[in-house]
Amino acid sequence: GQRRWHCRECQYTFRPHKKHHKQDKRWLKSYLLDGSSLRRLGERWKVSQMTAWRRIQRTFQSNINLNKLIILSRQSCSGIILLDGKHFQIEKKPYTLYVSFDGIKKKPISWILMPRYELRRGYDRILTHLKSQNSPIDAIISDGGKGLEASVKGYYPFIVHQRCAAHVLQDVYRKLGGRWFLATGYGKEIWPIMKKIALGFDNEIEAGEYLKIMKKKYSQYHRAFFVLKKNLSGIYQFTKKPNLPIPRTSNLIENFMGQLEQRLKTFRGVKTPDSLIKIITNLIILKHKKPTKK
Predict the structure, then answer these.
(1) Alpha-carbon gap, residue 252 to 151, rounded angstroms
(2) Distance (Å, whole) CA 177 – CA 179
(3) Which of 170, 172, 166, 165 is nearest to 238 (CA)?
(4) How many CB atoms sit inside 10 A of residue 238's CB?
(5) What is the pLDDT of residues 41-77, one digit of tens each?
(6) C-beta neighbour count of 28 within 10 angstroms
(7) Is 91 left (phi over 0), alpha (psi -120 to 50) or beta?
(8) What is the per-residue burial (b if ≥16 Cβ within 10 Å, else e) of 248-286?
(9) Cα–Cα distance between 157 and 138 in angstroms, integer?
(10) pLDDT digits 0-9 by tens, 232-250
(11) CA-CA-CA-CA torsion sign (184, 236, 107, 64)
């Protein structure tokens, strides 16, 4: 029947905006960014793991939910956008995080978590927002997802849509036989040729001519050359606007997604999609959003 409190100093429930909780807020940042576990956080606060988790839940914004588009900044983005999706499995149900990334400022623009695997409607939500902001989009870089391509054609049919050369090389890698093939002498000879076709030329014509020569010389690898030939036009779309610094790959957003995934592996409390999107949003805000000047 005694009163229960979360703070031994003020004997009230934990509130992160209290003056004497500045150190606690720093520990929360260490939990989100540096990989501190709930157990370590509870030891610092001298409370149990569940109490530490409840304190973290109090710092999350309550208006961040599933199927809601979250925008990092209202400022206009640059003309080069990267799009990608990341799959998550929660209680054996699939969810996809859709992200738009600024290729010049190198930070995320908006993101949304939606149920099911990667579909067009997630990218539709992001591109609808960009269209409503009248953002001058010159180029979009992405992988070869069909839903993504259909969404870009529907909203921005006349811009440069650059296909990620790294994803094309991954398809070539699988057609060649993967790691086992690259370990052989033939693999060490043919793999640099494939990389040169995808990344080593400044225009599609020169790359196409070199591809024809190599295809005749190494005819036994016709399946891998077919993948390159099929996607050659897409990976050389950047040549349509040579004055813009359009990247050939989507490595920027892939690295960003990889950092999110690596950090989320250490979280033990991600059991619902709402808690997942709240953790992802707080991670992005702490890392990329600059504090406003007062």
Answers:
(1) 21
(2) 7
(3) 165
(4) 21
(5) 778 777 777 777 777 776 666 677 888 898 887 677 7
(6) 21
(7) left
(8) bbbebbbebbeebeebeeebeebeebbbbbbbbbbbbee
(9) 11
(10) 999 999 999 989 899 999 9
(11) negative
SS (HEC) of the chain: CCCCCCCCCCCCCCCCCCHHHHHHHHHHHHHHHHCCCHHHHHHHHCCCHHHHHHHHHHHCCCCCCCCCCEECCCCCCCCEEEEEEEEEEECCEEEEEEEEEECCCCEEEEEEEEECCCCHHHHHHHHHHHHHCCCCCCEEEECCCHHHHHHHHHHCCCCEEEECHHHHHHHHHHHHCCHHHHCCHHHHHHHHHHHHHHHCCCCHHHHHHHHHHHHHHCHHHHHHHHHHHHHHHHHCHHHHCCCCCCCCCCHHHHHHHHHHHHHHCCCCCCCCHHHHHHHHHHHHHHHHCCCCCC
CA atoms of 218 and 198, how far apart (whole Å): 17
Give the type of residue at 162.
Answer: Q
**231: pLDDT strictly greater than 50:** yes
Specify the pTM: 0.82
Side chain identity, residue 50: M
80-104 tens-digit pLDDT: 999 999 998 888 889 999 999 998 8
- Does residue 209 or residue 54 have the better pLDDT? 209
Residue 96 burial by Cβ neighbours in a 10 Å radius (0-12, 13-18, 19+):
middle
Structure-block tokens of residue 31: 């939990």
The position carrying tokens 């990667």 is 118
